[in-house]
Amino acid sequence: MGRGKLRIHLGAAPGVGKTYAMLAEAHRRVERGTDCVVAFAETHGRPRTEALLTGLERVPYRRLEHGGASVTEMDLDAVLARRPRVALVDELAHTNAPGSRNAKRWQDVEELLAAGIDVLSTVGIQHLESLGDTVESITGVREPETVPDEVVRRADQVELVDMTPEALRRRMAHGNIHQPDQVDAALSSYFRPGNLAALRELALLWVADRVDAHLRRYRSEHAVKAIWGSRERIVVGLTGGPEGRTLIRRAARLAEKGAGGQLLAVYISRSDGLTSASPGELAAQRTLVEDLGGSFHHVVGDDIPTALLDFARGANATQIVLGSSRRRAWQYVLGPGVGATVARDCGPDLDVHIVTHEEAAKGRGLPVARGAPLGRLRLAWGWAVGTAGPVVLAALLSAVDPGLAIDMLMFLAVTVAAALLGGLWPALASAAVGSLLLNFLYTPPLHTWSVSDPRNIVAIVVFVAVGASVASVVDLAARRTQQAARLRAESEILSFLAGNVLRGETGLEDLLERVRETFGMESAALLERAGDVEPWTCAGRAGRGRPVGRPEDADVEVPVGDHMALALTGRVPPAEDRRVLAAFAAQAAVVLDRRRLREQADRALALAEGNRIRTALLAAVSHDLRTPLAGIKAAVSSLRSEDVEWSEEDRAELLEGIEDGADRLDHLVGNLLDMSRLHTGTVTPLMRGTDLDEVVPRALGGVPEHSVALDVPETLPMVDADPGLLERAMANVIENAVKYSPPGERVLVAASALAGRVEVRVVDRGPGVPDEAKERIFAPFQRHGDAPRGSGVGLGLAVARGFTEAMGGTLNADDTPGGGLTMTLTLHAADARPEDGPDDSGRGPVTAQDERRAS
How far, in Å, CA of 724 to CA of 677, rounded? Predict the structure, then answer.
């Protein structure tokens, strides 16, 4: 059985006729013979909508009591049992009344779809979760009921139900939407023409985006290469140069002129990674694109025109924006350039715009060395060899005179040595000095700057070109080596950072300390604020530098979104460090969000646990506590009855029943109060040396005589415990053991000392507990096996463990050899427990006494 199909009627505004359209579609399907039922339809008392219900089968609604009133909800089980081919479920974003299986109606729809039932449903654009803030800013009304966008996006069909604002207001004025006494107020508030037009635009854009996603998927699945100009998509090609921002703004203006225009910026890098693009400039251009509502894409390709055209066709673009070439006129002999090639190969379905800019025809220039990538000592040796080497060589060759060809090779060797040592500029200096010496000393006429033989001129030019080429290659290799080393260091830092953050091993303060250490800063702080005019607050800080109250007061400010920033003090790092700093800042924001989410989850878990406890308390009050109360009331009513003459034996039996019921009630209420105190954290034991042989016998008051055998030696050391809590814990454990022991079998309570601890074992010969349930029996409101109701609310062992752990001890369950269960309660001996600091349980020193004692 496959999954059912979902068709949603999306309303552009309230009252446009979503339910009407859904019911009309159901009538069309019924006429075709399709099995359709109305699972739930909300007509809001509108006569024309109610008339469409005639002729459609309706599944009876489920009635629930909520807030003192009777409410109707869809009967999910009845619809599943009916198993129609199509079910009509109105108001997808509706919140179900308490007592329903699911919290939201869309979750009910998911169950119907999973069962193979097709569903027709409705939802208004104002109920989409992602548009909640936008709708509130337009209408001033926050929709309390929302549905996740993904639920609507997954629908097989989404039909827009639309109406012009004027027509919708006429419907309102005619009383077709609200009651007559509500019309004037609605027309002057929510149903103002501007509000309706804005909601209509939201609906149209949302549906257009969904249609566009379907179109892209269809083109991909069917390998469609041709461009379908259904909407303007502007692709702007970036080189990482300074002209990029001009191109982006120009492309954004083009996109704004077309309805639903879309801006896509693409940077194409070579596969070898050798590029002269500035990472900082690319980052700034990426930010500009995103601020203008576009998207930034990084594509790898060695043939830049082909890669650009492939990307444009893949994105179904209609226009390409490129900048005028920065090449000088003579460089065009090497080829037509990217712009001309793209314009030639784009075909009739793509328009290419060549935008002029200030950097056009100025040339790309040589990359400028920043710093000393080869090292200061190596650079010094390079300059020494490049300037002094040719002079020394000329002096040596003057005594030998091997000939011009050998002289040039020797000078070229010095130039190569200077390039290997010092890079570009020392090698160029060596080539210049060498060429001058060759001309002056070794080319006729000698000792003049003129050259008589043209071949010597060619030789000297070749010598200079070879020297410059070798120097350029060595310099480029050195820079790439430095870049590779830096990128490797950055990648290692970021990999370590991302790994720690993803694994949850790094807290916010630890991350900020790593930022401070990595970049040698005095302090690092993450600042945030709630709004543009709100003051900054510090979410986390590391280091001992001066405190920073605002990002602008720091030496380095790295923004993270609109209302968060990483502030560093100590020095101003180089610009290339900002990329890694931005990554650290983003990760710091992620860590902060995760910490807050964890805190929210903990609070939610505590609330859920509290709700579970309250629910169980109500269940206990409804049955387990009412049982002894009912027995007491029956006995008292019998004694007060004047119609029956009770004998002394009967009166004594009734009074004994009253006493037993009161004792049982006192025990149950005591456990309930103890568990409540444990969950609210108000149990604060007063720890002192306590003798077990005094506490354990008092704990036997609630069990029959001769049901327990004691083996508690008087020579045992005292335990560090609260006598009242210990007595209560032991009483609950012993009563539980006696309850499950076979008739005639006595429970053994034995104690012994071992390595600074005292163990109390409660051993029974009952049915025992499987290993997988040994921890579950300590959970609140848990009865093991087929324990009958009325035998307790399942709190005895939970209270016992809670009190034991509050005193720094442990309570565990183990199998009794030969059958049964052994409870082992372990406490610190009084002379072995640490005097200060936390104990083994993680609790700190206790200063207040627990006021409640076992009665």
Answer: 15
